[in-house]
Amino acid sequence: MSLVFAINGQRFELDLSSVDPSTTLLEFLRYQTPFKSVKLSCGEGGCGACVVLVSKYDPVLQTVEDFTVASCLTLLCSINHRSITTSEGLGNSRDGFHTIHNRFSGFHASQCGFCTPGMSVSLFSALLDSKSSSEFTVLEAEKAVSGNLCRCTGYRPIVDACKSFAADVDIEDLGFNSFCKKTSLPPFDSSDVCSFPEFLKDEVNKSIDSGLHRWCSPGSVEELQRLLGACNSDGLSVKLVAGNTSTGYYKDERERSYGKYVDLTRIAEMREIRESRNGVEIGAAVTISKVIAALKEIRVEKMFGKLAAHMEKIAARFIRNFGSIGGNLVMAQRKQFPSDMATILLAAGASVKIMSLLSREVQKVTLEDFLQEPPLGVYDLVFTIEIPFQSSSELFFETYRAAPRPNGSALAYLNAAFLAQMKEDRTVVNCRLAFGAYGTKHAIRCKEVEEFLSGKVITDSVLSEAITLLGKFVVPQEGTSDLAYRSSLAPGFLFNFFHSLTEKPSSNGYHHHLDQPKQLSSSQHVPINDEYFPVGEPVAKSGASLQASGEAVYVDDIPAPANCLYGAFIYSTKPSAKVKGIRFKENSAPDGVVSVISCKDVPKGGQNIGMKFSFGTEPLFAEDFALHVGQCIALVVADTQRHADTAANLAVVEYETEDLEPPILSVEDAVKKSSLFEIYPFLYPQKVGDTSKGMSEAHHRILSSEIRLGSQYFFYMETQTALAVPDEDNSIVVYSSCQTPQYVHSTVASCLGIPENKVRIITRRVGGGFGGKAVKAMPVATACAVAANKLQRPVRTYVNRKTDMIMTGGRHPMKITYSVGFKSTGKITALELEILIDAGATLGLSMILPSNIIGALKKYNWGALSFDIKLCKTNLLSKAIMRAPGDVQGTYIAEAVIENVASSLSLEADTVRKINLHTYESLALFYKAGAGEPHEYTLSSMWDKLGVSSRFEERVSIVREFNESNIWRKRGISRVPIIYPVSMFSTPGRVSVLSDGTIVVEVGGIELGQGLWTKVKQMAGYALGLLQCDGTEELVEKIRVVQSDTLSMVQGNFTGGSTTSEGSCAAVRLCCETLVKRLKPLMDKSGGGGPISWNKLISQAYAQSVNLSASDLYTPEETPTQYLNYGVAVSEVEVDLVTGQTTVLQTDILYDSGKSLNPAVDLGQIEGAFVQGLGFFMLEEYITDSEGLVLTDSTWTYKIPTVDTIPRQFNVEILNSGRHEKRVLSSKASGEPPLLLAASVHCATREAVKEARKQIRMWKGVDDDSGLMFQLPVPATMPVVKELCGLDIVESYLEWKSRVNSRL
Asked: Which terminus of the chain is more exposed, N or C, with fewer CB under 10 A?
């Protein structure tokens, strides 16, 4: 039997006996086809990078059904007789890009580009859906990519690109784009895409399954029973498959091998939805998406519509399209999966039919009983699910969930669903109360509370008693995260439900289900500067359409060379332990393993180093001793990446810890044991003024206040990856996704013990870096090089997301203790700091942290400033420099101090901020030469300008009025400034003109998504255009920037610090000036008959042997090596006091970009950095165990921002601050500084929490202001916010109301 399917119209036919049934569609696409647009990022269905469109033909109805799936979870065998469309199948550079690709490019919606193909397919599918049902609306546009992750853009331009297809959108309301001057945009057209291949239609009716292969697709219950009976007789293990989406959560399932994989989706009874007089019966194999669609159609039953609305928050659309309702319930019953489906169906009174496939008996049980029974047996099957109609008009139904992401793609902290029959006099006839996902085995009904409420009239006192009773039953198991928070949600939801039924909706009521989320909106004010045309133009990012189509080549997209092997890292799970050896479980090498590479395999003459930088070196492999959890011990090499990953998971490292000193696992312990790294004096910041004098002048002092800041993971979409290929003469070529090719080069050479001229590092583009591919990419490339050198075969690795999160580290945690003196006006006179930075076990680039922290913290005039900063050496994972390293912590410390001072004086924080803003004189005192000229200091005027444009004072009053009239929601608004010092550094470049007039540019900087290539092209166009020959105005179209090659472009330095684009542009300008000097005499000679064309000039230059290749090294000797960046942000938030959920209602940003080299690129950097900062301050919990092992190691547990967590109104203005002669065409940096502005969201949240605390203290009769002196931790997640607002807020309200009523 054959497996027949199509990919982008091409026929594929595989012998089913030759296919491993556990092979995923992603694996087949990436390793056995030329289609590389489908990316691997998380491998668990949590990011959308691997999304493809599946088309399924119905021969009876002669219709085609199109839907998206996560190809990383979809089994290859399950797409038999189906057609697959990837992003390059929509359009490409050869056949023409699709409208969607051009729209993403034109809306500047692609930066690193790794996520863009998946985004394109998700949007395409949403447009197809709307075409078959109704018009595509703005609301549907926002949902189109709601399950797709992006770490670069901040989502706003992506949403605008989607909204541009909406029938109800006004083009004037769309964000900044290349189509601004057009009155309409090309419509969506699917006529030439996604037509179901005729050859597949003929195959559909041939689907007869013999059951002889490991993959079987029985077409009836009888076939299924016969098949499983045979498996039982033969002792074969069996995996029943519907969508296989469970392997995204239970990843260990992938490593299990089954004798038979049985596909259930062809059994008619299991894929049908049948409506009867009593309810709806749903086949267990029906996808969640189809269940949603069916429930929405049953309009007479209000409960069904609410069930459907809740189900739309389960996972992402591309998971719901393939995941089955039965599979979800089985996971809940068998594996205690925290299911929303189980909870809401439990409240709806659902039942299930269970079929024993051996005895052939069918048993109908309530869902409640089903969940309580022992785990379902291997040969027992959930056959159908029945949801009864609720005919009474007195019945009320509602569902609830509290989750890190409002619109789904996140497990709930707690979910609930309530069904109640109520009389008009508010008497409860009966009710059903279901709770789940709070840290219990399965969803439960609180029958004791149901019985208590039945027959009672709902009053505040009755609700209070019911909530007290509820607390005895909704109790998470020990060890559950955020245990108290989860318990606190149940009373809130119960109160919400009954209060909303008995009270008329008002501003004081809590009616979360009545709220409609505000649609995303934005405005951008972008200055266009034509002085250096085409520099200053908002040119679309170079290669954006290529990225959208998926044709842009990343390291893992490079076709595997012949005999290529694959590596996976084995890392330490113990801190400070002797490594005795490595073995595999069951003491036998897993399938496909070729070798285990360790420190013993470093060549003679080489050094065991995996990182070589100016501050020193770090080991590649642990030798006899593991310093920390996550340290690389070995690289297991196998014939496939899957075999390598499986082998690494099966590896057992044997440790010995006897007679060893206890590991150092905290900064306090490091200080106590004097375990510190030395900080070079020239990198240690200088204090300002005399803090002793400042303290003596102060009217008030706050002494020894403490702040703790945790880490943040990079979450680049492309994980660490490298490919090493041995070459002739004992040389090696390494393709590395890195920000530091020069340093990777020297590290590989030193490790292999060969001259540097025998090493070549090639980097074309990087799928996101954020600092994580500076130092941490070096050992990945070096390990592959060592393995390739030993085995004399190409070796590559694509590090899986979990390993990447465990080994790579992230932002530096730190402990800050400060004392501050200030006057009664709020003017600060002195600030003293003690900062303990956790650098981890090795130094890396941690030495730059002290100056960065203080550089950002000096944004206020502290009067005098002193500090004691220590770099602590611990036995924890070595930290890396993440976007704005130290700077983001520094700006937060400053804001924490300001807010503490404001609270102690009962002043508005904004008042204290303003009074401590720098004058130019104080700025020069704190920043010295970096302050620049007086006219360059724009922060003070920007503060006032944004105050006016954002209507700050007016909105402060509106927020105050809102808080006075709303009990269950509080708002806060905050205005925050930033100062961000950056440094220029040397950068090389080369410009070569080819014989046809086209131009090739090489630079040391790496394209990470920050638009470096785009700005470089513009600069080359400008500098060569100074020749003013005919055609130079179109030179940008002739320019191509090519990959970085360390043997071609030496002294490449590193890409980071926000100024590499400027430095690369400066280097290219120098090269072009050289070429202009060489071409000018020739042009002058040829100019008698009018302007000579560019192509003719180049032809003459070639004929006369003019050197048309120029290289140069830009060094910032004639310009200040450091300058300051300024920005201000105003953010307004709303906090739900029952759940702790914070919604960012509006953010207004004003950022000084000097004279922007490309305002479209800079706008993208500003928004993307801000949203990444939003993740740090509000969402991203980086949790480790007591020994430092990262626990938040997947998309299930680590939550970066999504479309539904960004500001609902997002306004950005780029300030053109005029001429700065000593900088690159008067430009300024934009890559990192705006990240700090996200502190405004955190500060606004603190304001909202403060109002909540005032309210609850009033309820409790507490008069003093001590409760208003509090610290809001980072990140301010829902549990953190709720705890500060009061975990007992509902109970406190009811008690207060009872006291008030008793006085009446």
From this structure: C
Tokens coding 30: 């990436």
H or E element, residue 1047: none
* CA 27 vs CA 50, 69, 256: distances in Å: 10, 14, 17
As a whole number of angstroms, the distance between CA 933 and CA 919 comes to 12
**DSSP 8-state assignment for residue 259:** S
Overall average pLDDT of the 1206-1212 stretch: 97
pLDDT digits (tens, 9 = 90+) for 908-922: 999 999 999 999 999
Q: Is 150 annotated as ligand-binding?
A: yes
pLDDT interval class at 1277 (50, 70, 90) = very high
Q: Is 1168 annotated as a binding residue?
A: no
- Give 484-541 pLDDT, tens digit per residue: 999 999 999 999 999 888 776 544 544 444 345 578 999 999 988 889 999 999 999 9
Direct distance between the N- and C-terminal alpha carbons of the chain, in angstroms, rounded to an integer: 82
Q: Has 1188 been labeled as part of a binding site?
A: no
Distance CA 1076, CA 999 (A): 13
What SS3 class is residue 917?
A: strand
1257: annotated binding-site residue? Answer: no
Mark residue 390 as left, alpha or beta (left: phi above 0; alpha: psi -120 to 50; beta: remaining): beta
Distance of CA 363 to the CA centre of its chain: 44
CB neighbour list of residue 758: distance below 8 Å, 6 or more residues apart: 729, 730, 731, 732, 749
Long-range contacts of 952-955 (CB under 8 A, 24+ apart): 952/910, 952/1130, 955/1130, 955/1132
The one-letter code for the residue type at 269 is E
Q: What pLDDT score does 504 carry?
A: 60
Distance of CA 346 to the CA centre of its chain: 33
Q: Is 344 annotated as a binding residue?
A: no
Residue 813 token pair: 């945690």
Cα–Cα distance between 916 and 914 in angstroms, integer?
A: 5
Catalytic residue list = 1232
- How would you classify residue 96: left for phi > 0, otherwise alpha for psi between -120 and 50, otherwise beta? left
Q: What are phi and psi of 1144, to 5 degrees?
A: -85, 105
Helix axes 288-297, 325-335, angle to 10 degrees: 120
**Rounded mean pLDDT, 196-207:** 83
- Rounded distance between C-alpha atoms, residue 891 and residue 1127, angstroms: 12
Known binding residue 162? Answer is no
Write out the H or E segment, with its range, that includes residue 354.
strand 351-356
1009 and 112 Cβ atoms separated by less than 8 Å: yes
pTM for the structure as a whole: 0.97
Percentage helix, strand, coil, to 5, in the chain?
35, 25, 40
Residue 340 labeled ligand binder? yes
Q: Determine if residue 326 is labeled as part of a ligand binding site.
A: yes
